[in-house]
Design brief:
Distance between the termini: 95 Å
Number of domains: 3
Oligomer: single chain
Strand content: 5-15%
Number of helices: 11
Keywords: Membrane, Transmembrane, Transmembrane helix
Length: 424
């Protein structure tokens, strides 16, 4: 008997050969896909294909913005609404609130207009009718045309139930019962050719039903709120008339001023510049440095008295310190004072202390010199000479606790009638 032939051993395929085969396969698939895409485009038409591609790109971009902006905007410098009155009419001058904050997802944060009640109501009702109802009709028309075309093609491959046929070809509009029936058919096994299309149909039918409610919830109108603080005389004072304090001279009567006399930074207000407390102090401090300390040669005449007070107080505390603890003879401008020195304190938000330290070395005569020296010696600045902050109104000083307790947001009244804003 002839000897059995030995099997021929298979050649070993190396890693390089496998990579070359994979690259060849991918290139071949890309060529086939390119050929199929061009055939489809020639069949459909380039103009229509570009339209659908543009709509897809725009839709994807809008969806991406809706998903990303709440997270990006919460910690960025995107435009903010009023830092004093929040959308829910809360009084909050201590934080810079952003309309992109994810925590305010269900709040209406974009407000505009200065309307009376009738105007606001008419616009709100018109929005519900035009956007809500006509938008619902447009969604139903476009989706039903697409669904009907798909179902007609799908029936060649798989039968559909009578309820699906009646909903799409007889009723031609979604109802709550028809949506439930179609969903029940799909769940119970009477599926279409594509499960993705089934899910898309149910979602679209639900969106069509609820779209007027969603459109109505997107808008509203509310009274235009204005920030007030109840002053020491039990009167409501507009918060825009409060200004940041640089120094307080507690025994001002010794130099011809009132006791507890406030020296303001600059004539700026929170509501006029859309500031919160920290931003207000930041802006006021930089303006005071620019006008009164770094370059006061071109200062306007109206700013000269304020600058002299700021410079005088800064020089005094730089020479003699705070709180009148120095028991030597001192001089305020041209007034010689016997012991003890003036009782002066400064106010500054704690969050700005690091900025003040950075700016302090840029010029010779600057505010808060004892604070800066204390910081350079390693002692916590906020525990030395500066309180958190203080605002002044009508020569009276109000601290954080008082403003937080007695501040409120109330409707703006013009000739007794409230003014309204449209909100989105």
């Amino acid at each position: 008997m002839p000897a059995a032939s030995k099997p021929i051993p298979h050649a070993r395929v190396g890693m390089f050969d496998r990579l070359r085969i994979l690259v060849f396969f991918l290139l071949r698939r890309m060529f086939v896909i390119k050929h199929e895409v061009f055939n489809d485009l020639n069949r459909v038409g380039w103009a229509k294909a570009l339209q659908w591609a543009s709509l897809s790109i725009v839709g994807s971009g809008l969806l991406t913005m809706l998903l990303v902006l709440p997270y990006v905007g919460a910690g960025s410098s995107l435009p903010s609404f009023s830092s004093v009155c929040t959308p829910d009419a809360s009084f909050d001058p201590f934080h810079m609130n952003s309309q992109w904050d994810i925590r305010r997802f269900f709040q209406i944060t974009l407000a505009f207009g200065d309307l009376n009640f009738t105007q606001a109501k008419v616009i709100d009702v018109a929005w519900d009718i035009v956007i809500g109802r006509l938008g619902q009709a447009l969604i139903a028309y476009l989706s039903w045309r697409s669904f009907s075309a798909y179902i007609a093609a799908s029936m060649h491959f798989r039968p559909i139930t009578y309820r699906v046929f009646r909903t799409l070809f007889v009723d031609r509009e979604p109802t709550l019962m028809s949506t439930i029936e179609v969903l029940n058919d799909f769940v119970s096994g009477h599926c279409l050719e594509s499960r993705f299309v089934m899910s898309f149909m149910v979602i679209t039918m639900s969106l069509t039903l609820f779209f007027p409610t969603l459109a109505s919830a997107m808008t509203g109108y509310s009274p235009r709120n204005t920030a007030y603080v109840r002053d020491y005389n039990d009167n409501l004072a507009a918060f825009s008339r409060f200004h940041p304090v640089m120094y307080i001279i507690h025994d001002g009567s010794r130099i011809g001023l009132a006791d507890e006399y406030p020296i303001v930074f600059w004539n700026v207000s929170l509501t006029a510049h859309n500031f919160n407390i920290d931003s207000l102090y930041y802006f006021a401090y930089t303006e005071s440095l620019r006008v009164c300390f770094r370059d006061n040669t071109n200062a306007e005449p109206s700013t000269i008295p304020l600058c002299r007070m700021q410079q005088g107080a800064s020089k005094y505390v730089a020479d003699y310190g705070y709180f009148g603890t120095n028991t030597t003879t001192s001089a305020w401008n041209n007034i010689t004072l016997p012991s003890p020195t003036l009782n002066i304190s400064s106010t500054l938000p704690y969050s700005l202390h690091s900025h003040i330290v950075e700016w302090g070395s840029d010029h010779g005569l600057y505010p808060f010199k004892p604070d800066l020296e204390s910081e350079s010696l390693g002692r916590p600045l906020q525990h030395q000479y500066s309180s958190d902050f203080a605002l002044t109104y009508s020569d009276a000083v109000y601290d954080r606790k008082y403003i937080q307790k007695y501040g409120s947001c109330q409707p703006l009244l013009v000739r007794v009638n409230a003014k309204y804003t449209l909100e989105f």
